[in-house]
Amino acid sequence: MNTKNNQIKLNMVAVPATKGKMDDKFRSLIETIKKTTGFKLNFYEAATYDEAIESLVNGKAHIAWLGQSAFHKAVKKVELDSLAVPSGDDESIYRTVLITPHRTKISSPNDLKGKRLILTEKGSTSGDLIPRHILTQNGLNPDISTNFSKVIYAGSQKEAAIKIIKGEGDVAALSDVNLKEMLKNGILQKKDIKIIYESKPIPGAPIVCLKNLNTDVKEKLRKAILEAHKFGAVNGYGTHIEHYESPQEARLDFLKAYLKPQVGIKALAVSLGLLFLTILVSLHLKISPKVIFSSFSYFSDIIGRMMPPDFSDLWNLVISMVETIEIGFLGTVFAVLISIPISLMAAKNITKSKFLYYPAHLITTFFRAVPEFIIAMILVISVGFGALPGVLALGLHTMGFLSKFYAEEMEHVQIGPIEAIESTGANWFQKITYSILPQILPSFMGNTLYILDRNIRMATILGIVGAGGIGYRLQSAFRMFKYPEVSAIIIIIFVTIFIIDIISSKVRHSVK
Amino acid sequence: MVIVSKLKKVFPDGTVALDGISLKVEEGQFTVLLGPSGAGKTTLLRSINGLVKPSNGDVTVDGIKVIDENYRKIRTLVGMVFQHFNLVGNLSVIKNVLSGSLGTHQKWWSNLFLFPKSYRIRALDLLDRVGLLDKAYNRADELSGGEQQRVGIARAMMQEPKVLLADEPVASVDPTNSSNILSLLRDLCKEKKVTVLCCLHQVDLALQFSDRIIGFTNGKLIFNDKTSNLNRDSLRQIYDETSVEGMFFGSDMKTPDISHIQWKE
Questions:
Q1: Surface of A (261-280) touching B: CB under 8 A
Q2: Residue A132 domain-assigned?
Q3: pTM for this entry
Q4: b/e per residue, A460-494, with b = 16+ CB within 10 A?
Q5: Model confidence at A286, in pLDDT bands (50, 70, 90)?
Q6: For residue A123, what pLDDT is reported?
């Protein structure tokens, strides 16, 4: 910087991104800066990327355009301030494209293994660093010798394109800015090449200056560049530069592109859909708040008739309750006994044959699908009233659940311990007892206890279809309009289930 | 600034984790707490944001005493990075980062996972800094360990803390990632002038990244000085010799061979 004669003299350097053409690219911008600031600004293109960095380090240049890669390299060597960043339509400053000769079978980066890769110049962003990054992301790091049979540096993008036409390589990496130019002036023909990949837009590289430049000078420069578009076309390296913006603004724009709406349209649609469905279903079933409120009077009437509870036959009621608990217990034992072999057949990692797997699944699904109520009704008709149809109905229905639970637990065990036991030469049974059983035991116990708890609760109702226990008493009390006895039975059931609930949750916690 | 004075912590089972420790952590410094496991590093760290209640003595952060009434205030000032990352795996990466700002964003709609735009831009900015902008909308549990810890750091920085506590931040990360993560943590904190207190058990990493080292053993302060003043003797004191011998005990022992004995079954 030279302030003699009151005129400030500055040098601006650019990296040779398009060799010999950088002067053209920046000419109108430079002229505008000169006019608005009154500085003497000398622009020159460096011979290499490193030379451009060097001239900033030794103070020869004060301002620079370095492209992305040299910029990142330069900030490690010299303190720089970013003056402005080019901005165009949707940030599309430039993209890296991969091209191949038109007649090859290559259609995506996945087909490139073992081919000859052409890059332009070591260290160039669009012709070396970005393509390397893209290829590495596709599992084809060019530094690993097995990925490409040859990696050629052509020297320039034009040379790289010519090598593709001549068939001296299979794929070349270019910037789309250069590609368009070459297609325009006839170096390349559209019919000769194929574009197999286009990168995301690569954000424009900033115009930078030395950090220790005079603050006033820096501000004048920044203002001149940011307002250059008001004085005619601006240009620089890239296709659609409309204007330059401050680095902060550019950063914000860059980040804004990654914003997404917070409430997903899907979530909104699902919630609205559910609301609509609820209203529709209520209308179809003719359920409205009015109907619900008017039914309260009938409800309070029956409650009134049930009071006070009649415990005169308490002893017999308790015996029926005990019978109910016994039905639930036996039903569970029955279910567990059948579930163990069936779950072994239904667990994918244990069973070895499809002829076991599919029938086992069919059986469990069937008994899960048929409610115990219906099973009990059928059994009452065939084996008669009493506890037996209750036990069988509960056993069969919950077998459907338990087998599924057990099988899923077995499928989700860790493979490591099984492999370890297998590698000791243990047999099939030993494998199950030593590696699978210990892993599933806690949840096995938990699920079984849950089913026991549930079966006792279900057994109280099963009596209604004639399958024994307190449910049978409940149903006959209803039939004979003995409402006070009904309420007594309900109280007994409630107390029993309350106690069973406490015991069952305590036991389940203790096994986990 | 963090001031710890005569801090003592005795756990219910009688273990003395901290035995009357006093120290001052200078603003903007990267301080590493060094010591063998069980030395009391984690307990000290956790007593700074009130996750552990001291039995005696007290801690002040930025002039505010760490006591029950001040917990919320303290916790907005103090960020934390955990050994096991502690991300919410089912939430997206960006939501995890945004959750760092819950101490200041307390509108009712924060519970619907909604955040102001300025917050979301800041979260994206931090994610870009830690190199994970492209994964902002991935589920957090899809990320590798090293990536998850970088999200953990972004979450802590989202809080704009004055003090950052890092509890073994690289213990669950592979060695090549360890120095990347520590330098990221160091650079971000230097830039935003955040005071860092970091537990580490790797001496080499502590030497490489810290401005100051505080060495402990058995709940007592052994060393508290600039990193450059740490020498072999002080290291030996921190990792006291009995425990060093213990490490080699197994290999030196000759146990009698019983494999040839004939047993009657």
A1: 262-263
A2: yes
A3: 0.67
A4: bbbbbbbbbbbbbbbbebeeeebbebbbbbbebbe
A5: confident
A6: 67
The whole-number pLDDT of residue B121 equals 92
B216: which 2 tokens? 């402990």
Domain hosting residue A289, numbered range: 265-294
Q: Is B136 within 8 Å of A258 when comparing Cβ atoms?
A: yes
Domain that holds residue B166: 2-90+160-235
In angstroms, the separation between the Cα of residue A202 and the nearest Cα of chain B is 14
Same domain? A368 vs A428: yes
Q: For the domain that residue B66 is a member of, what is the CATH number?
A: 3.40.50.300
Type of residue found at B105: H
Q: Which residue of B has its CA nearest to A248?
A: B125
Interchain proximity B137–A260, CB inside 8 Å = yes
B143 assigned to some structural domain:
no
Q: Which of A252, A260, A263 sits opposite B121 (nearest CB)?
A: A252
| Nearest CB partner across the interface for A256, out of B121, B133, B137 | B121
Residues A202 and A133: beta-carbon distance below 8 Å: no
**Span A91-105, pLDDT tens digits:** 445 678 888 888 888
Neighbouring CB atoms inside 10 A of A289's CB total 8
* B121/A260 CB distance under 8 A: no
pLDDT digits (tens, 9 = 90+) for B232-257: 777 777 776 544 444 444 444 456 66
Q: Is A60 helix (H, G, I), strand (E, B) or coil?
A: coil
pLDDT band at A90 (very low <50, low <70, confident <90, very high): very low
Name the helix (H) or strand (E) containing A391: helix A387-411
Mean pLDDT across A197-210: 78
Is A263–B125 a contact, with Cβ atoms under 8 angstroms apart? Answer: no
Taking the C-alpha atoms of residue B2 and residue B25, their distance in angstroms, rounded to an integer, is 5
Looking at the structure, tell me whether residues A370 and A336 fall in a common domain: yes
Nearest CA in chain B to A263: B114
Cis upstream peptide for A308 (omega within 30°)? yes
Residues of B with Cβ-Cβ distance to A263 under 8 angstroms: 112, 114
How high is the ipTM of this complex?
A: 0.76
A155 and A281 share a domain? Answer: no
Tally of structural domains, chain B = 1
A267 min Cα distance to partner chain B (Å): 12
Q: B202 near B209, Cβ under 8 Å? A: no
AA identity, residue A252: L
* Residue labelled with tokens 């101490």: B103
Residues A356 and A446 in one domain: yes
Does A151 lie in the same domain as A35?
A: no
Residues A43 and A176 grouped into a single domain? no
Domain C-terminal end among A198, A223, A243 = A198
Can you read off the two tokens belonging to residue A418? 């099984």
- Write out the two tokens for B233: 């003797």
> Cβ(A35)–Cβ(A4) under 8 Å?
no
**B124 vs chain A: nearest CA distance in angstroms?**
6
Q: Show the 3-state SS of chain B.
A: CEEEEEEEEECCCCCEEEEEEEEEECCCCEEEEECCCCCCHHHHHHHHCCCCCCCEEEEEECCEECCHHHHHHHHHHEEEECCCCCCCCCCEHHHHHHHHHCCCCCCHHHHHCCCCHHHHHHHHHHHHHCCCHHHCCCEHHHCCHHHHHHHHHHHHHHCCCCEEEEECCCCCCCHHHHHHHHHHHHHHHHHCCCEEEEEECCHHHHHHHCCEEEEEECCEEEEEEEHHHCCHHHHHHHCCHHHHHHHHHHHHCCCCCCCCCCCCC
Given a contact cutoff of 8 angstroms between Cβ atoms, the answer to whether B119 and A246 are in contact is no
Q: Are residues A141 and A273 in the same domain?
A: no
Q: Are strands A40-45 and A9-14 parallel, antiparallel or unpaired?
A: parallel
